[in-house]
Amino acid sequence: MTPEQLKSSILQYAIQGKLVEQRPEEGTGEELFAQIQEEKKRLIAEKKIKKEKPLPEITEDEKPFDIPESWIWVRLSQIWSILNGDRGKNYPAKSTLSKTGIPFISAINLNGKTVVEDENLLCLSQIQYDKLVNGKLQKNDVVVCIRGSLGKHGVYPFDQGAIASSLVILRNYFFNICDDEFLLLYLDSPLFFSEIKKYDNGTAQPNLAAKSLEQFLIPLPPLYEQKRIVAKIEELLPLVDRYAAAYEKLEQFNAKFPEDMKKSILQYAIQGKLVEQRPEEGTAEELYRQIQTEKKRLIKEGKIKKEKPLPEIAEDEIPFDIPESWKWVRLSNIAESIVDCPHSTPKYLDMETEYCTIDTNCIDEKGDITKWRYVDADTYTARIARLTPQKDDIVYTREGSICRAAILPEDPKVCLGQRVMLIRSANGVFPQFIRRLLMSPMVIRKLTEQQKGIGAKHVNVSDVCNLILPLPPLAEQKRIVAKIEELLPLCERLK
Description:
Elements: H1 3-15, H2 29-45, E1 72-75, E2 81-84, E3 102-105, E4 122-124, H3 126-131, E5 136-137, E6 142-145, E7 153-155, E8 161-163, E9 167-171, H4 180-188, H5 190-199, H6 210-214, E10 217-220, H7 223-270, H8 284-300, E11 327-330, E12 335-340, E13 355-358, E14 373-374, H9 377-383, E15 394-397, E16 405-407, E17 413-416, E18 420-425, H10 431-438, H11 441-449, H12 461-465, E19 468-471, H13 474-493
Parallel strand pairs: 3-8, 13-17
Antiparallel strand pairs: 1-10, 2-9, 3-4, 5-8, 6-7, 6-9, 11-19, 12-18, 13-14, 15-16, 15-18
Helix pairs in contact: 1-7, 7-13
Protein backbone atom coordinates (compact mmCIF):
# COMPACT_ATOMS: atom_id res chain seq x y z
CA MET A 1 0.00 0.00 0.00
CA THR A 2 1.39 3.39 -0.98
CA PRO A 3 1.42 6.29 1.52
CA GLU A 4 -1.25 8.00 -0.60
CA GLN A 5 -3.44 4.89 -0.44
CA LEU A 6 -2.92 4.62 3.32
CA LYS A 7 -3.87 8.25 3.87
CA SER A 8 -6.88 7.83 1.60
CA SER A 9 -8.01 4.76 3.58
CA ILE A 10 -7.73 6.64 6.88
CA LEU A 11 -9.79 9.53 5.50
CA GLN A 12 -12.37 7.13 4.11
CA TYR A 13 -12.67 5.45 7.51
CA ALA A 14 -13.04 8.89 9.06
CA ILE A 15 -16.00 9.96 6.92
CA GLN A 16 -17.63 6.54 7.25
CA GLY A 17 -17.70 6.85 11.03
CA LYS A 18 -15.21 4.01 11.55
CA LEU A 19 -12.22 5.94 12.90
CA VAL A 20 -13.56 6.82 16.36
CA GLU A 21 -16.43 5.43 18.38
CA GLN A 22 -19.84 7.10 18.58
CA ARG A 23 -20.94 8.51 21.94
CA PRO A 24 -24.67 8.96 22.60
CA GLU A 25 -24.05 11.88 24.96
CA GLU A 26 -22.67 13.92 22.04
CA GLY A 27 -26.05 14.10 20.35
CA THR A 28 -26.79 13.42 16.67
CA GLY A 29 -26.01 14.82 13.27
CA GLU A 30 -29.75 15.49 12.86
CA GLU A 31 -29.75 17.80 15.89
CA LEU A 32 -26.63 19.55 14.64
CA PHE A 33 -28.15 20.05 11.20
CA ALA A 34 -31.25 21.62 12.78
CA GLN A 35 -28.99 24.09 14.61
CA ILE A 36 -27.29 24.97 11.31
CA GLN A 37 -30.64 25.65 9.68
CA GLU A 38 -31.70 27.91 12.52
CA GLU A 39 -28.42 29.81 12.35
CA LYS A 40 -28.76 30.10 8.57
CA LYS A 41 -32.26 31.62 8.96
CA ARG A 42 -30.86 34.19 11.38
CA LEU A 43 -28.04 35.15 8.97
CA ILE A 44 -30.53 35.45 6.11
CA ALA A 45 -32.77 37.67 8.23
CA GLU A 46 -29.77 39.86 9.08
CA LYS A 47 -28.90 39.90 5.33
CA LYS A 48 -25.45 38.47 5.98
CA ILE A 49 -26.07 35.65 3.53
CA LYS A 50 -28.53 35.17 0.69
CA LYS A 51 -31.48 32.80 0.76
CA GLU A 52 -30.72 29.73 -1.35
CA LYS A 53 -32.94 27.81 -3.72
CA PRO A 54 -34.19 24.53 -2.25
CA LEU A 55 -31.97 21.52 -2.98
CA PRO A 56 -33.33 18.10 -4.00
CA GLU A 57 -33.93 15.56 -1.24
CA ILE A 58 -31.22 12.95 -0.81
CA THR A 59 -32.46 9.60 -2.07
CA GLU A 60 -31.37 6.20 -0.81
CA ASP A 61 -29.86 5.45 -4.23
CA GLU A 62 -27.54 8.46 -3.92
CA LYS A 63 -25.97 7.40 -0.62
CA PRO A 64 -22.59 5.85 -1.43
CA PHE A 65 -22.15 3.93 1.85
CA ASP A 66 -23.65 3.38 5.27
CA ILE A 67 -22.91 5.80 8.09
CA PRO A 68 -23.62 5.55 11.85
CA GLU A 69 -27.22 6.08 13.00
CA SER A 70 -26.20 9.24 14.82
CA TRP A 71 -24.92 10.80 11.55
CA ILE A 72 -26.87 12.37 8.71
CA TRP A 73 -26.32 12.83 4.97
CA VAL A 74 -26.46 16.48 3.83
CA ARG A 75 -25.55 18.43 0.72
CA LEU A 76 -22.38 20.53 0.73
CA SER A 77 -24.10 23.93 0.35
CA GLN A 78 -26.33 23.16 3.34
CA ILE A 79 -23.34 23.54 5.67
CA TRP A 80 -20.92 25.56 3.53
CA SER A 81 -21.70 28.67 1.48
CA ILE A 82 -20.40 28.35 -2.08
CA LEU A 83 -19.44 31.66 -3.69
CA ASN A 84 -18.50 32.26 -7.31
CA GLY A 85 -16.02 34.83 -8.52
CA ASP A 86 -16.88 37.95 -10.49
CA ARG A 87 -16.96 36.88 -14.13
CA GLY A 88 -18.41 40.08 -15.58
CA LYS A 89 -16.92 43.17 -17.13
CA ASN A 90 -14.85 43.88 -14.02
CA TYR A 91 -12.88 40.63 -14.31
CA PRO A 92 -9.21 41.68 -14.55
CA ALA A 93 -7.09 40.83 -17.58
CA LYS A 94 -3.89 38.99 -16.74
CA SER A 95 -1.85 41.77 -18.35
CA THR A 96 -3.17 44.21 -15.73
CA LEU A 97 -2.00 42.13 -12.76
CA SER A 98 1.25 42.75 -10.92
CA LYS A 99 3.46 41.33 -8.15
CA THR A 100 2.17 43.76 -5.53
CA GLY A 101 -1.27 44.60 -4.23
CA ILE A 102 -4.20 42.39 -3.26
CA PRO A 103 -3.74 38.67 -4.09
CA PHE A 104 -5.68 37.36 -7.08
CA ILE A 105 -5.78 33.59 -6.62
CA SER A 106 -5.76 30.94 -9.36
CA ALA A 107 -5.28 27.16 -9.26
CA ILE A 108 -1.49 27.47 -9.55
CA ASN A 109 -1.44 29.14 -6.12
CA LEU A 110 -3.04 26.15 -4.33
CA ASN A 111 -1.06 23.27 -2.82
CA GLY A 112 -3.82 21.21 -1.18
CA LYS A 113 -3.39 22.86 2.22
CA THR A 114 -3.07 26.60 1.76
CA VAL A 115 -2.55 29.39 -0.74
CA VAL A 116 1.14 29.64 -1.57
CA GLU A 117 2.76 33.06 -1.65
CA ASP A 118 5.51 32.62 -4.26
CA GLU A 119 6.61 33.95 -7.68
CA ASN A 120 3.36 32.65 -9.24
CA LEU A 121 1.15 34.85 -7.06
CA LEU A 122 -0.30 37.81 -8.99
CA CYS A 123 -2.11 40.77 -7.48
CA LEU A 124 -4.90 43.26 -8.13
CA SER A 125 -4.72 46.95 -7.50
CA GLN A 126 -7.03 48.40 -4.86
CA ILE A 127 -9.10 50.03 -7.62
CA GLN A 128 -9.55 46.69 -9.44
CA TYR A 129 -10.48 44.98 -6.20
CA ASP A 130 -13.08 47.59 -5.27
CA LYS A 131 -14.82 47.12 -8.63
CA LEU A 132 -15.40 43.40 -8.06
CA VAL A 133 -18.93 42.45 -7.11
CA ASN A 134 -18.27 38.81 -6.22
CA GLY A 135 -15.38 36.49 -5.40
CA LYS A 136 -13.81 38.52 -2.60
CA LEU A 137 -11.90 36.38 -0.14
CA GLN A 138 -11.83 36.51 3.64
CA LYS A 139 -9.27 34.98 5.92
CA ASN A 140 -9.81 31.20 6.42
CA ASP A 141 -12.01 30.85 3.33
CA VAL A 142 -11.40 27.61 1.45
CA VAL A 143 -10.61 28.00 -2.24
CA VAL A 144 -11.52 25.09 -4.57
CA CYS A 145 -10.68 24.63 -8.23
CA ILE A 146 -13.64 23.74 -10.49
CA ARG A 147 -11.86 23.87 -13.86
CA GLY A 148 -8.75 21.97 -14.87
CA SER A 149 -7.31 20.55 -11.63
CA LEU A 150 -10.70 19.68 -10.16
CA GLY A 151 -10.81 19.60 -6.37
CA LYS A 152 -7.43 21.21 -5.82
CA HIS A 153 -7.87 23.44 -2.80
CA GLY A 154 -6.27 25.52 -0.07
CA VAL A 155 -7.15 27.66 2.93
CA TYR A 156 -6.80 31.40 2.32
CA PRO A 157 -4.38 32.90 4.91
CA PHE A 158 -4.68 36.65 4.12
CA ASP A 159 -7.23 39.30 5.06
CA GLN A 160 -8.15 40.34 1.50
CA GLY A 161 -8.09 38.70 -1.90
CA ALA A 162 -10.10 37.62 -4.93
CA ILE A 163 -10.47 34.47 -7.01
CA ALA A 164 -9.99 33.70 -10.69
CA SER A 165 -12.86 32.30 -12.75
CA SER A 166 -11.62 28.70 -12.35
CA LEU A 167 -12.21 28.78 -8.59
CA VAL A 168 -15.00 29.03 -6.04
CA ILE A 169 -15.01 30.01 -2.38
CA LEU A 170 -16.29 27.72 0.38
CA ARG A 171 -17.15 29.83 3.42
CA ASN A 172 -18.13 28.42 6.78
CA TYR A 173 -20.56 30.69 8.64
CA PHE A 174 -21.09 28.11 11.38
CA PHE A 175 -17.76 27.94 13.20
CA ASN A 176 -19.42 27.19 16.54
CA ILE A 177 -21.59 24.46 15.05
CA CYS A 178 -19.36 22.76 12.42
CA ASP A 179 -15.64 22.06 12.73
CA ASP A 180 -13.70 23.70 9.89
CA GLU A 181 -10.97 21.04 10.04
CA PHE A 182 -13.52 18.24 9.61
CA LEU A 183 -14.85 19.92 6.49
CA LEU A 184 -11.29 20.15 5.16
CA LEU A 185 -10.84 16.42 5.76
CA TYR A 186 -13.83 15.86 3.53
CA LEU A 187 -12.08 17.76 0.70
CA ASP A 188 -9.18 15.29 0.87
CA SER A 189 -11.37 12.20 1.08
CA PRO A 190 -12.13 9.65 -1.65
CA LEU A 191 -15.82 10.57 -1.33
CA PHE A 192 -15.18 14.17 -2.42
CA PHE A 193 -13.29 13.03 -5.51
CA SER A 194 -15.92 10.43 -6.36
CA GLU A 195 -18.49 13.25 -6.27
CA ILE A 196 -16.28 15.28 -8.59
CA LYS A 197 -16.12 12.37 -11.01
CA LYS A 198 -19.92 12.02 -10.88
CA TYR A 199 -20.58 15.68 -11.72
CA ASP A 200 -17.60 16.46 -14.00
CA ASN A 201 -19.08 17.78 -17.25
CA GLY A 202 -15.82 18.61 -18.98
CA THR A 203 -14.61 17.17 -22.26
CA ALA A 204 -11.17 18.39 -23.31
CA GLN A 205 -10.79 20.21 -19.99
CA PRO A 206 -12.29 18.89 -16.74
CA ASN A 207 -15.06 21.23 -15.62
CA LEU A 208 -17.39 21.40 -12.65
CA ALA A 209 -20.34 23.78 -12.25
CA ALA A 210 -20.73 25.56 -8.92
CA LYS A 211 -24.39 24.40 -8.94
CA SER A 212 -23.14 20.82 -9.07
CA LEU A 213 -20.75 21.43 -6.18
CA GLU A 214 -23.72 22.54 -4.09
CA GLN A 215 -25.26 19.06 -4.43
CA PHE A 216 -22.22 17.10 -3.30
CA LEU A 217 -23.01 14.65 -0.50
CA ILE A 218 -21.22 14.91 2.82
CA PRO A 219 -21.83 12.85 5.98
CA LEU A 220 -22.39 15.03 9.06
CA PRO A 221 -21.52 13.69 12.55
CA PRO A 222 -22.20 15.53 15.84
CA LEU A 223 -19.83 18.43 16.51
CA TYR A 224 -17.77 16.76 19.27
CA GLU A 225 -17.35 13.64 17.19
CA GLN A 226 -16.10 15.85 14.35
CA LYS A 227 -13.47 17.22 16.72
CA ARG A 228 -12.45 13.74 17.89
CA ILE A 229 -12.13 12.60 14.27
CA VAL A 230 -9.90 15.59 13.51
CA ALA A 231 -7.77 14.85 16.60
CA LYS A 232 -7.39 11.20 15.56
CA ILE A 233 -6.37 12.22 12.02
CA GLU A 234 -3.80 14.62 13.45
CA GLU A 235 -2.48 11.74 15.55
CA LEU A 236 -2.29 9.37 12.59
CA LEU A 237 -0.93 11.62 9.82
CA PRO A 238 2.59 11.92 11.37
CA LEU A 239 2.65 8.11 11.37
CA VAL A 240 1.65 8.18 7.70
CA ASP A 241 4.54 10.59 7.08
CA ARG A 242 6.93 8.18 8.80
CA TYR A 243 5.49 5.37 6.72
CA ALA A 244 5.97 7.51 3.59
CA ALA A 245 9.64 8.06 4.44
CA ALA A 246 10.16 4.32 4.98
CA TYR A 247 8.19 3.54 1.84
CA GLU A 248 10.34 5.89 -0.22
CA LYS A 249 13.51 4.23 1.08
CA LEU A 250 12.05 0.84 0.20
CA GLU A 251 11.12 2.07 -3.28
CA GLN A 252 14.64 3.37 -3.79
CA PHE A 253 16.03 0.04 -2.60
CA ASN A 254 13.69 -1.90 -4.87
CA ALA A 255 14.60 0.33 -7.82
CA LYS A 256 18.32 -0.23 -7.22
CA PHE A 257 18.08 -3.88 -6.23
CA PRO A 258 17.86 -5.45 -9.73
CA GLU A 259 20.87 -3.48 -10.97
CA ASP A 260 22.80 -4.10 -7.75
CA MET A 261 21.96 -7.79 -8.02
CA LYS A 262 23.15 -7.84 -11.63
CA LYS A 263 26.44 -6.19 -10.63
CA SER A 264 26.85 -8.67 -7.77
CA ILE A 265 26.28 -11.63 -10.10
CA LEU A 266 28.88 -10.32 -12.56
CA GLN A 267 31.32 -9.62 -9.74
CA TYR A 268 30.82 -13.11 -8.29
CA ALA A 269 31.35 -14.50 -11.78
CA ILE A 270 34.74 -12.87 -12.29
CA GLN A 271 35.86 -13.78 -8.76
CA GLY A 272 35.20 -17.48 -9.33
CA LYS A 273 32.31 -17.59 -6.85
CA LEU A 274 29.39 -18.17 -9.23
CA VAL A 275 30.09 -21.81 -10.17
CA GLU A 276 32.23 -24.47 -8.56
CA GLN A 277 35.72 -25.31 -9.77
CA ARG A 278 36.25 -28.82 -11.20
CA PRO A 279 39.79 -30.28 -11.16
CA GLU A 280 39.09 -32.38 -14.26
CA GLU A 281 38.70 -29.17 -16.31
CA GLY A 282 42.38 -28.35 -15.90
CA THR A 283 43.88 -24.98 -15.01
CA ALA A 284 44.09 -21.54 -16.56
CA GLU A 285 47.89 -21.83 -16.49
CA GLU A 286 47.70 -24.82 -18.84
CA LEU A 287 45.20 -22.96 -21.05
CA TYR A 288 47.42 -19.86 -21.09
CA ARG A 289 50.45 -21.84 -22.32
CA GLN A 290 48.33 -23.36 -25.10
CA ILE A 291 47.16 -19.88 -26.15
CA GLN A 292 50.73 -18.55 -26.29
CA THR A 293 51.90 -21.54 -28.33
CA GLU A 294 49.03 -21.05 -30.80
CA LYS A 295 49.75 -17.31 -31.09
CA LYS A 296 53.42 -18.00 -31.86
CA ARG A 297 52.34 -20.34 -34.64
CA LEU A 298 49.97 -17.74 -36.14
CA ILE A 299 52.69 -15.08 -36.00
CA LYS A 300 55.15 -17.40 -37.72
CA GLU A 301 52.59 -18.10 -40.45
CA GLY A 302 52.02 -14.36 -40.89
CA LYS A 303 48.35 -14.58 -39.91
CA ILE A 304 48.67 -12.16 -37.01
CA LYS A 305 51.24 -9.52 -36.12
CA LYS A 306 53.77 -9.86 -33.34
CA GLU A 307 52.84 -7.70 -30.36
CA LYS A 308 55.01 -5.53 -28.21
CA PRO A 309 55.86 -7.20 -24.90
CA LEU A 310 53.44 -6.34 -22.12
CA PRO A 311 54.58 -5.57 -18.56
CA GLU A 312 54.37 -8.32 -15.98
CA ILE A 313 51.40 -8.14 -13.66
CA ALA A 314 52.52 -6.74 -10.32
CA GLU A 315 50.98 -7.87 -7.03
CA ASP A 316 49.61 -4.39 -6.28
CA GLU A 317 47.69 -4.46 -9.59
CA ILE A 318 45.64 -7.50 -8.59
CA PRO A 319 42.25 -6.27 -7.30
CA PHE A 320 41.04 -9.46 -5.54
CA ASP A 321 41.77 -13.13 -4.96
CA ILE A 322 40.74 -15.73 -7.50
CA PRO A 323 40.64 -19.56 -7.37
CA GLU A 324 43.96 -21.40 -7.55
CA SER A 325 43.01 -22.90 -10.91
CA TRP A 326 42.58 -19.40 -12.42
CA LYS A 327 45.22 -16.95 -13.67
CA TRP A 328 45.51 -13.18 -13.94
CA VAL A 329 46.30 -12.13 -17.53
CA ARG A 330 46.26 -9.03 -19.70
CA LEU A 331 43.60 -8.85 -22.40
CA SER A 332 46.17 -8.80 -25.20
CA ASN A 333 47.61 -12.07 -23.84
CA ILE A 334 44.35 -13.91 -24.52
CA ALA A 335 43.25 -12.07 -27.66
CA GLU A 336 44.24 -13.10 -31.15
CA SER A 337 43.81 -9.53 -32.44
CA ILE A 338 42.74 -6.14 -31.10
CA VAL A 339 42.25 -3.32 -33.65
CA ASP A 340 40.83 0.17 -33.51
CA CYS A 341 38.26 1.57 -35.91
CA PRO A 342 39.35 3.86 -38.79
CA HIS A 343 39.55 7.42 -37.54
CA SER A 344 37.03 8.75 -40.02
CA THR A 345 33.27 8.90 -40.42
CA PRO A 346 31.91 6.44 -42.98
CA LYS A 347 29.40 7.63 -45.56
CA TYR A 348 26.18 6.05 -44.40
CA LEU A 349 23.38 5.07 -46.78
CA ASP A 350 19.66 5.55 -46.21
CA MET A 351 18.85 2.16 -47.68
CA GLU A 352 19.78 -1.36 -46.64
CA THR A 353 22.69 -3.07 -48.39
CA GLU A 354 24.63 -6.27 -47.75
CA TYR A 355 27.37 -4.17 -46.11
CA CYS A 356 26.82 -3.14 -42.49
CA THR A 357 28.71 -0.94 -40.13
CA ILE A 358 28.49 -0.83 -36.37
CA ASP A 359 29.26 2.02 -33.97
CA THR A 360 28.49 3.10 -30.42
CA ASN A 361 24.88 4.01 -31.27
CA CYS A 362 24.18 0.49 -32.51
CA ILE A 363 24.85 -1.19 -29.15
CA ASP A 364 22.66 -0.78 -26.05
CA GLU A 365 23.67 -0.87 -22.38
CA LYS A 366 23.07 -4.64 -22.25
CA GLY A 367 25.56 -5.22 -25.05
CA ASP A 368 22.87 -6.13 -27.58
CA ILE A 369 23.05 -4.94 -31.19
CA THR A 370 19.86 -2.94 -31.65
CA LYS A 371 20.42 -1.73 -35.22
CA TRP A 372 22.79 -1.71 -38.18
CA ARG A 373 23.94 1.15 -40.34
CA TYR A 374 24.69 0.60 -44.02
CA VAL A 375 27.50 1.53 -46.40
CA ASP A 376 28.48 0.72 -49.97
CA ALA A 377 31.00 -1.90 -51.07
CA ASP A 378 33.90 0.55 -51.47
CA THR A 379 33.42 1.98 -47.97
CA TYR A 380 33.21 -1.53 -46.52
CA THR A 381 36.40 -2.62 -48.28
CA ALA A 382 38.31 0.44 -47.10
CA ARG A 383 37.25 -0.01 -43.48
CA ILE A 384 38.23 -3.66 -43.15
CA ALA A 385 41.83 -3.07 -44.23
CA ARG A 386 43.19 -3.71 -40.73
CA LEU A 387 41.02 -6.75 -39.97
CA THR A 388 37.87 -8.24 -41.44
CA PRO A 389 35.30 -8.69 -38.66
CA GLN A 390 33.87 -12.19 -38.33
CA LYS A 391 31.42 -14.21 -36.26
CA ASP A 392 32.09 -14.12 -32.48
CA ASP A 393 34.33 -11.06 -32.69
CA ILE A 394 33.65 -8.54 -29.94
CA VAL A 395 32.83 -4.92 -30.83
CA TYR A 396 33.72 -2.73 -27.85
CA THR A 397 32.69 0.91 -27.39
CA ARG A 398 35.50 3.20 -26.28
CA GLU A 399 34.03 6.70 -26.62
CA GLY A 400 30.81 8.23 -25.32
CA SER A 401 28.93 5.26 -23.84
CA ILE A 402 32.03 3.22 -23.08
CA CYS A 403 32.31 -0.46 -22.11
CA ARG A 404 29.47 -1.84 -24.19
CA ALA A 405 30.48 -5.16 -25.70
CA ALA A 406 28.57 -6.89 -28.50
CA ILE A 407 29.21 -10.27 -30.13
CA LEU A 408 29.01 -10.24 -33.92
CA PRO A 409 26.59 -12.73 -35.51
CA GLU A 410 27.42 -14.87 -38.50
CA ASP A 411 25.45 -13.30 -41.31
CA PRO A 412 26.28 -9.62 -41.91
CA LYS A 413 29.35 -8.30 -43.68
CA VAL A 414 30.40 -5.85 -41.00
CA CYS A 415 32.92 -3.05 -40.78
CA LEU A 416 33.66 -0.74 -37.88
CA GLY A 417 32.07 2.68 -37.64
CA GLN A 418 33.25 5.34 -35.24
CA ARG A 419 34.23 5.09 -31.57
CA VAL A 420 34.52 1.30 -31.38
CA MET A 421 37.27 -1.32 -31.47
CA LEU A 422 37.37 -4.97 -32.43
CA ILE A 423 38.56 -7.77 -30.13
CA ARG A 424 39.06 -11.31 -31.42
CA SER A 425 39.48 -13.91 -28.69
CA ALA A 426 42.30 -16.42 -28.91
CA ASN A 427 41.49 -20.08 -29.45
CA GLY A 428 40.60 -21.52 -26.03
CA VAL A 429 38.93 -18.34 -24.78
CA PHE A 430 35.14 -18.21 -24.88
CA PRO A 431 34.08 -14.89 -26.54
CA GLN A 432 30.93 -14.62 -24.39
CA PHE A 433 33.07 -14.86 -21.25
CA ILE A 434 35.37 -12.08 -22.46
CA ARG A 435 32.30 -10.01 -23.29
CA ARG A 436 31.05 -10.40 -19.71
CA LEU A 437 34.47 -9.49 -18.35
CA LEU A 438 34.59 -6.35 -20.47
CA MET A 439 31.17 -5.28 -19.16
CA SER A 440 31.90 -6.14 -15.51
CA PRO A 441 31.87 -3.46 -12.76
CA MET A 442 35.62 -3.97 -12.29
CA VAL A 443 36.48 -3.14 -15.91
CA ILE A 444 33.93 -0.32 -16.20
CA ARG A 445 35.37 1.30 -13.07
CA LYS A 446 38.96 0.91 -14.31
CA LEU A 447 38.33 2.30 -17.80
CA THR A 448 36.13 5.11 -16.48
CA GLU A 449 39.08 6.24 -14.37
CA GLN A 450 41.30 6.13 -17.46
CA GLN A 451 39.02 8.14 -19.75
CA LYS A 452 40.67 11.01 -21.57
CA GLY A 453 39.52 14.06 -23.50
CA ILE A 454 37.75 17.30 -22.70
CA GLY A 455 34.54 16.99 -24.73
CA ALA A 456 33.63 13.44 -25.63
CA LYS A 457 35.53 11.25 -23.17
CA HIS A 458 37.30 8.24 -24.68
CA VAL A 459 39.38 5.23 -23.71
CA ASN A 460 42.68 4.48 -25.43
CA VAL A 461 43.07 1.15 -27.19
CA SER A 462 46.33 0.59 -25.27
CA ASP A 463 44.43 0.87 -21.96
CA VAL A 464 42.02 -1.82 -23.11
CA CYS A 465 44.88 -4.06 -24.28
CA ASN A 466 46.55 -3.75 -20.87
CA LEU A 467 43.45 -4.61 -18.87
CA ILE A 468 44.13 -7.18 -16.15
CA LEU A 469 41.52 -9.94 -16.30
CA PRO A 470 40.92 -13.21 -14.44
CA LEU A 471 41.10 -16.29 -16.67
CA PRO A 472 39.45 -19.62 -15.72
CA PRO A 473 39.72 -22.90 -17.69
CA LEU A 474 37.65 -22.95 -20.89
CA ALA A 475 34.95 -25.33 -19.62
CA GLU A 476 34.47 -23.19 -16.53
CA GLN A 477 34.23 -20.06 -18.70
CA LYS A 478 31.29 -21.64 -20.51
CA ARG A 479 29.61 -22.73 -17.27
CA ILE A 480 29.97 -19.21 -15.86
CA VAL A 481 28.36 -17.66 -18.95
CA ALA A 482 25.51 -20.20 -18.81
CA LYS A 483 24.86 -19.34 -15.16
CA ILE A 484 24.94 -15.60 -15.89
CA GLU A 485 22.46 -16.04 -18.73
CA GLU A 486 20.23 -17.99 -16.36
CA LEU A 487 20.34 -15.38 -13.58
CA LEU A 488 20.26 -12.02 -15.38
CA PRO A 489 16.70 -12.47 -16.76
CA LEU A 490 15.60 -12.99 -13.14
CA CYS A 491 17.11 -9.58 -12.30
CA GLU A 492 15.12 -8.04 -15.14
CA ARG A 493 11.92 -9.58 -13.78
CA LEU A 494 12.55 -7.81 -10.46
CA LYS A 495 12.31 -4.37 -12.07
